[in-house]
Each structure stands twice: as C-alpha cells, then as structure tokens.
Amino acid sequence: MNLKELKEEVKQALEDISDPKYLESLRIKYLGRKGEVTQILRSLSKKSLAERKKVGKEANQLKQELNHLFNKKLEELKMASDQQVGLDITQPGARVKIGHLHPLTQVENQIRKIFQDLNFSVLEGPEVESSHNNFDALNIPADHPARDMWDTFWLKDFDNLLLRTHTSPMQVRYMRENKPPFQIIVPGRVFRYEATDASHEINFYQFEGLMVGDDVSLANFKYIVGEFFKRFFNKEVKIRFRPSYFPFTEPSVEVDIQIPGKKDWLEVMGAGLVHPNVLKAVGYNPKHYQGFAFGGGVDRLAMLKYGIDDVRLFYSGDVRFVQQF
Ligand code: PHE
Description:
Layout: H1 3-15, H2 20-31, H3 36-43, H4 49-84, H5 103-117, E1 121-122, E2 128-130, H6 131-134, E3 161-163, H7 169-177, E4 182-191, E5 203-213, H8 218-233, E6 238-246, E7 249-258, E8 266-274, H9 276-281, E9 290-297, H10 298-306, H11 319-322
Parallel strand pairs: 1-4
Antiparallel strand pairs: 2-3, 4-5, 5-9, 6-7, 7-8, 8-9
Phenylalanine binds next to β8 and β9.
C-alpha cells in the first residue's frame, strides 16, 4: 500500500468512529510502535539513499497529518459526549464554595491585632479552672455574696473544679508566674449557668486585659481603652466611666461607649485597678506595684459592630447567618 492509499484508509476509518476506545486502538494500529506508518519508516533503512530521502519525508509528513486527524477526532468525540450529559463547556465554571472564619473569630482576631499593636502580649488560659483561680484569689471567698454575680457550672465528681465564668483567672495564673511590668490580653471562652435569651448565652467569649507596673493608673487605662475602641470601630468613639463594683478591682468602673451618630450609651466593659488583695494572693507587694484590669465581651462587640440583635445566632450553626460575614 502506498502512503496516499494509507491516508485515505485512515480517513475513511475515522469517519464512522463514535467510541473513543476504538479510536485509540486505531491510533495504535497506524501510529503505534508496531503501527503501519512506523513500519514504513523502519523499512527505509534497507532502501537506497534517494528513496530514503523521498519516502522518508513523505512518511514523516503523513505521520504528522494522521496525528493531527486523530487528535481532532478525539476532541470531537469529547465535545459530543459533554453535550450528551448536558455540559456546556462555554459556561463559566461553578464557583467552589470555600469556608471562612466565623464572625466571632474574625472579631477576636481583630481585638488581638489591635492590642498587639499597642504592645500587649496575647495569651490563653484553660476553660476548666480551679475555684481558687476563678474566685478565691480574685478576692471572692466561698461565702462572699458576689459569687452570685457568676452562676457557675461545677464539674461533677471533681472538688472545686468549674468551667471558668470569666477570663479573670488568667490574671492570677499570669501574675503568679511573672513579674511586672507587663501588659497582656487574654481572649477566651467562658461559661455561665443561666437561662438564655437574646443577650445571654451559657457560653460566650471575653477578652481580659491586665497591665501592671510601678505606677500604672486609670489614666493609662483611659488612653488604652480609648485607642482600642477608636481602632475597633474605625471612628472617634466617646467613652465614659461609671462607678461599679467588682471584688477584684478597686476602684471599679463600667466602661460605656457612644458611637458617633448614635444616641445611646452602651455598656461594653468592666474594669478597675487591681485590688491589693489580688496582688497579695499572687505574691506581689501592693506597695510596689499597681495596675489596671478589664474584661470585655467579644460577642457584645461583634453584635455592635455588625448590628446583630440576638447573641444566640452566633451559636446556631445556621450557615445563612455566618455566610453574611
Ligand atoms: N471578670 C469581670 C466579668 O466577667 C469583668 C472584669 C474584668 C471586671 C476585669 C473588672 C476587671 O464580669
């Protein structure tokens, strides 16, 4: 068979193919290692130089042409089968949904970043605490009526272990192991044994702040807290302190903020100067050191920032909610 005939034969064969598998076997028949075109090229070694030149060139050309024809046919078959399954390859691809961080995590990350920029170290503490760290060392002895401020989940079968009701026990843990001056924040999950409603959950997130040194005062706190809220809301936020009571701070204040354009003052933090009894409990001399502590709610700030009116939404697991952030 000469090359021309061979080409016609292949063309003909390709015409009525509809099965890609059969196409492949045909390709092997002609272009494979033992295929007909390959054999023609091999047999050239026995021919004269002139013939080798002529036929060799033609055979190589044919090989290329056939390769092209096979590839084209393969494309055609693929397209046809795509259309059969209703696939329109000219459509833009479907966007792959990837997850993202929960709004509470986003807000907590932002809080961490702002305080790091203000030269605070970020630490975390355990969610299961001793009643000593959660209460006693914070100047709340067992018979103190202020214990009622924190409804507590106690661990069954373990004496004096509980789910921390606030992040304040990390004040105790940190001061026991470190000497001033320092400034830290401690974001973390806390637990309260309470009925839930739009503004109460049995677990939520707080961030504790603590700065202790030779003469750290409420004036330093005022600056830090003002800087924090300005950066958090990206606006000049008005701040006011109201007298309050916590067993572990003296004096104690509530921090209220007023966001520009809004009428209401919103309570966002408890704070104060670390009580001398707390300093004593961790082995500090209250005559040498003083500092401020504060505790804020991550959930509460996230609600204010995004205009969310029910804290339970954060824990609902409803993707329609979290997808909005
Ligand atoms: N731990 C307090 C609470 O959960 C908040 C607080 C922290 C107040 C530090 C003063 C100082 O209510």
